[in-house]
Give the backbone structure.
Amino acid sequence: MKRMLSILLAGMLLLSAFACTGIPTAEPAPEPKGDPVAEQPTETPEEITIEAPEESSEEQTTGEPIALEPIENPPIQPGESLDKPIELTDPVPPVYEPMGEVPAVGGYGDFSNLLSAALLSGTENRNLSPISVYLALAMVAEGAKGDTQTELLTLLGCKNIEDLRGICAGMLETLTVDTEHSQLDIHNSLWMAENIGGQAVSFHPEYLNTLAETYRSEANAVEFGTQSAAKQIADWINKHTRGKINVSPNALDFDPSTLAVLINTIYLKDGWSEQFDPEKTETGTFYAPDGEAEVSYISRFDRNSFVRFGDGWMAYRVYLNSVGYVTFVLPDEGVALESLFGSPDAIDKLLHKGVDMKYDVSLRIPKFKFRDKMELTEVLSALGLKRSFTSAADFSGMSDTPCCIDSVLQESYIGVDENGVEAAAYTMISMRATAFLPQKLEKLDFHLTRPFFYAIEAYDGTVLFIGTVTNPTNE
């Protein structure tokens, strides 16, 4: 009996084994990498697709950020319809890295925040190139001595001139891009007077060598106060800003007492790393402070992307091919843009602070382009350059002719569209001699409003024509 029970039990075990044939042994689930995906399915179907998420009107009205878990699937490609289901792939790395904090480049970061806070109010279109102002002021600082150099170095965030040279040389070395589709081009130049008031002036060779070696600056001798000098400088600016800032020679009215002009130009052109489909560009409403406006919006859909949130604002980076990225900062609904500015720390927070969260981002950017022009003399004086604008300035490292800063001017251009970003700027610092100035004379009106005499003479004094005019209307 026991033998038969044993045989029966063995048979049952054998049948159970046959029934389980072909089922693989379960393996332990791999540990998740990065951020987990909420509610992963326990079984994997043959094909999984998801529809592009629809925008929620409730989310838009409340303005409350919703913490979304990352969706591990590739970004929308240029020209791909959002209505088309997207097949999930595993694994896929995040499209964007967290925005994180960007360390300041030496003393430049503080200067950039300081100048931006002084010039950006949030109430009008403005475009500023802090690096252009920085490099132009650095070239001026190279020719300063004593307290004059100290106040320039303090504004530029440097303890000594060697630190400043290191920062500027590093910028010029690293901030250069020249490819088929991307350009970042920076140029410097010095324009020197040949004489002032009939007296010859000279510039120290050490100063000229430093500008050439550290700042890659060219040097040109001109006669300020002439149309020829104005045209040479205007042509140089137009060339190195690629025609985006078309300076007229008539706008460059240099005083004959001008000793030197130092100029920096910067030109940037780069495409988006992920292109915007021109067919998705559409007209929409822009709610400006002075009323609604109809504008063209470029748009795309970015999956699994980082958005940064701060107090009353959110920020998003749109990456370029080679140069870097554009950070767009949008105030929360009901928050005025101007309320986000006011101090260097406020600028730093908008660019480098906040909390990063992942979203699927529907992106819309208005196409825009404009030019800007700013006289920076009063602003820089308010930021600490007191001595540099007065006859007490010491620029003896530049020339033995006493001089001071006369004016600081920047013009710029910015354009954003489906293809990318194009921007240009120049900063021009004019140095005025404070000695050997031409004597100012009393004004005299010489108006030929009554009969007059004339003579036409050759260069050797030979009289060629001579006569009188008593009525210019008589033939």
About this structure: The chain has a mean pLDDT of 79. The domain at 108-271+369-433 is CATH 3.30.497.10 (Antithrombin; Chain I, domain 2). The first helix runs from residue 2 to 19. The CA atoms of residues 197 and 438 lie 5 Å apart.
